[in-house]
Amino acid sequence: MRSATAHSIYSNDDRFSVLSAGTDKTANVVLTEEHLAWADAVIVMEKHHRNFIQSNFTNFYTIKKIVCLYIPDEYDYMQPELVVTLQRNFESVYGRGLLG
Hints:
mainly alpha; two-stranded parallel ribbon; 5 helices; globular
């Protein structure tokens, strides 16, 4: 729900083009090479997502900017606390120039 919420928050933000995909095989959209090829930067919610990319998409891991927001999987879709946490963490990363 974190990625789907982030997608909803930022899909109409003129600063970005966004896609959302998960690393779990049960995700609505599972991360593929095509997603990684498309992206200038990849935002993950937890360290194990970054590790998944490193293990399964080594070629992209070495050339893509991958930033972790460190948001645990304990929220529902568009839960107000999640929205605030996503915006705070993402805007901090963006404001520090860590996306490119």
